[in-house]
Design goal:
The chain has 14 helices and 13 strands. It has 363 residues and is an alpha/beta fold.
Length: 363
């Protein structure tokens, strides 16, 4: 099991704690006591609409798997977790719709393919009263990687995606009014903005945020390779694209900065802490992940020291200091999610020395 813990800052400078479970929306119910003890205020997960709930034939959406939606156990467990945690904890649901991976292109508004997407979403929101139990719904999850038709991300279906998001926001608003739902609608989640100056998807999403009154704000995923990118992405959104609505950051990681170094040896730090100097960082991480899963985690002090001195050359300490500064940036109505320290830290999919997701304490 794993959970990404983060700090968030919304509107005022008060800070709350939250947990992100990505696609594993059935996990929160298994960690209720931990979530209560950590005093989280937010829980977030996403659902892959096409892969789970739509029928596909030869690159076209041809129907809705209604029974799969109505009997989707992870959805039930997500709602059970919400009820177990009560009103103090707010839930966020992101809808992942990877067009490129599921269809030939972004369907046109008004086509049967597009209507199937809306039909599946409406059924999902009604199933187990999902819509009544979420505070925020995010349309999309890193669409830059999912709508492009080529590798340089310069020929995405920008206009069609813009039309899709506008229609989606309007449909969601109509359903809210008809059913008495109160969740806020966000678009997103954009990522690595400073690296994608030619993307057609980014301005399409931003246009919807800026011009559609039904959209409350924008979701950003900050997966930065260099220190300055953490702040640059927010400044690009505010200064270049002129977004004045609320921003949320539902994923933040230093994975790309750490990945090139996971095969480095622990060296002197390793011998000082009872390991061999030749042990690789990923071997150490695998080992302590096993310890954590066995209920005997290493101390937070030891784990901190790895980043404070053992692999300082990566610049992670500076990276995290810069990231904390991002939380204090004078941006209006920003909800920033950031990892925080916990004794039983967690990891995700650490295989073959490739660190895809890594949870770390704040130094």
């Amino acid at each position: 099991m794993f959970v990404l813990l983060f700090l968030c800052s919304m509107g005022t400078k008060a800070q709350d704690l939250g947990a992100n479970y990505n696609e594993n929306i059935d996990y929160p119910i298994t960690e209720i006591e931990m979530l209560k003890q950590s005093k989280v205020s937010w829980v977030r997960g996403f659902v892959n609409i096409p892969n789970l709930f739509l029928q596909n034939e030869n690159g076209k959406i041809v129907g809705v798997k209604e029974n799969a939606i109505r009997t989707h156990i992870p959805t039930l467990k997500f709602i059970q977790a919400k009820k177990a945690l009560g009103d103090r904890v707010k839930f966020i649901l992101s809808l992942k719709i990877p067009f490129e991976l599921y269809t030939d292109t972004v369907p046109k508004v008004g086509t049967k393919e597009m209507e199937y997407i809306f039909q599946a979403t409406e059924i999902l929101l009604k199933t187990y009263d999902m819509a009544k139990n979420i505070e925020i719904l995010v349309m999309g999850n890193e669409p830059e990687w999912e709508n492009a038709l080529d590798t340089d991300l310069c020929h995405a279906d920008g206009e069609d995606y813009r039309a899709f998001l506008n229609e989606f926001a309007n449909r969601l608003t109509a359903w809210k009014q008809a059913n008495g739902w109160t969740f806020d609608i966000y678009a997103g989640a954009l990522t690595r903005l400073s690296e994608l100056p030619k993307s057609e998807t980014v301005p399409a999403v931003v246009s919807v945020v800026n011009n559609n009154p039904n959209v409350v704000g924008l979701d950003l995923h900050v997966h930065a390779l260099k220190i300055n990118q953490a702040e640059d992405d927010f400044r690009i959104i505010r200064d270049k694209y002129g977004v004045t609505k609320k921003l949320i950051c539902t994923e933040f990681s230093m994975v790309r900065a750490l990945n090139p170094h996971v095969a480095d040896a622990l060296g002197e730090w390793g011998t000082k802490h009872g390991y061999t100097a030749g042990m690789k960082i990923y071997e150490y991480l695998n080992l302590i992940a096993e310890k954590a899963n066995a209920g005997t985690p290493v101390s937070a002090t030891e784990f901190k020291s790895l980043f404070e001195s053992g692999i300082r050359r990566i610049g992670i300490k500076l990276f995290m200091r810069c990231s904390r500064n991002m939380i204090r940036m004078p941006l209006p109505d920003v909800l920033v999610w950031f990892p925080v320290e916990r004794e039983l830290f967690t990891m995700r999919r650490l295989k073959c020395g490739n660190l895809e997701e890594f949870i770390f304490p704040v130094i």
